[in-house]
Design brief:
This protein folds into 2 domains: 45 residues, no CATH class; 108 residues, Beta Barrel (OB fold (Dihydrolipoamide Acetyltransferase, E2P)). 23% of the residues lie in helices and 32% in strands. It has a 4-stranded antiparallel beta sheet with strand order 3-10-8-5. Strands 7-6-4-9 form a 4-stranded antiparallel beta sheet. Strand 1 and strand 2 form a beta hairpin. The N terminus is likely disordered.
């Protein structure tokens, strides 16, 4: 009978963990309960979702941080949205931008560099995975709209290739 009671409390415990997961916007919780020598409960509660829309808000400062870089050319395009530029390469995911393969290494892309289709422009780290972002077309890099180590949102303009 005590085993049944234990299982009933386990269900309540797991439901409480799931609620804690939702309430704190967590993706995973893992807990181990030891009841007796050969009686324990090991629970892993997780959820896997696509990036939440609130990350769009957190990445909004990225263009502001990049404004000094863009300030050299916008005299003719002041007020234009870089994302609407026909040569804009946008982020395919939410993550952190890295301009080089490792700290201190040469940047993949620099303003004025000729780049070939498929050549790596930068890396976006998302969920501990380094994703190389390739150039969608050949051309010259006219503007770099993000800084090394900056957060980026899905669809945010990264570079402009003409």
């Amino acid at each position: 009978m005590s085993k049944t009671t234990s299982h009933d409390s386990d269900v309540s415990f797991i439901q409480a963990l799931a609620e804690l997961l939702r309430a704190n916007d967590l993706t995973e919780l893992r807990v181990k309960r030891d009841y007796a020598e050969n009686d324990s409960l090991d629970v892993r509660v997780g959820r896997y979702t696509q990036p939440a829309p609130q990350q769009v808000i957190s990445a909004a400062p990225a263009p502001v941080a990049a404004a000094p870089v863009a300030a050299a050319a916008p005299a003719a395009t002041s007020g234009d949205d870089p994302a609407s530029h026909p040569g804009a390469v946008t982020s395919p995911m939410v993550g952190t931008v890295y301009m080089a393969a490792e700290p201190g290494a040469a940047a993949f892309a620099t303003v004025g560099k000729q780049i070939s289709e498929g050549e790596t422009l930068l890396i976006i780290e998302a969920m501990k995975t380094m994703n190389h972002i390739p150039a969608p077309r050949s051309g010259t890099i006219k503007r770099i709209l993000v800084e090394d180590g900056a957060p980026v949102e899905f669809g945010a303009p990264l570079v402009i290739i003409e």
